[in-house]
Design goal:
Blueprint (H helix, E strand, L loop, with lengths): L5 E2 L2 E6 L6 E4 L18 H10 L13 H9 L1 H4 L8 E7 L4 E6 L5 E5 L9 E3 L1
Antiparallel strand pairs: 1-2, 2-3, 3-7, 4-5, 5-6
Amino acid sequence: MNIGDEYGGGIVFSLDKTGKHGLIAAKEDMSGHSSGHEEGRFTWTDANVACNDFVGNGYRDWFLPNKEQLNLLYLQKRVVGAFADYSTSYWSSSESSVTNAWLQVFINGFQSHSNKWYVSRVRAVRAF
């Protein structure tokens, strides 16, 4: 098993020291959107729901990555591919307060927190 391999319904982007466990990214950004917003744009709450409800290639255990997992995904963005636009940001599941959560900009890796009503892109992940 290697980074970039297709496995478990997606693309491997992180492996532990044994090479037997890691994280898989969905092959594409989440489709759909939050009400009143353009395709592919979700509020933080809707991002969590979309990932938890996602069934990709027969797998039902997808989730919104936390900020550390999202950073690992950012570091492997060219290997995983199919990101809508590197200049956009992606939600993580990590909250910074009751009203804010962390996101990451994929052009430069900058992580920041934003109001949960902000809309951003979403990439579901799963563990193996």
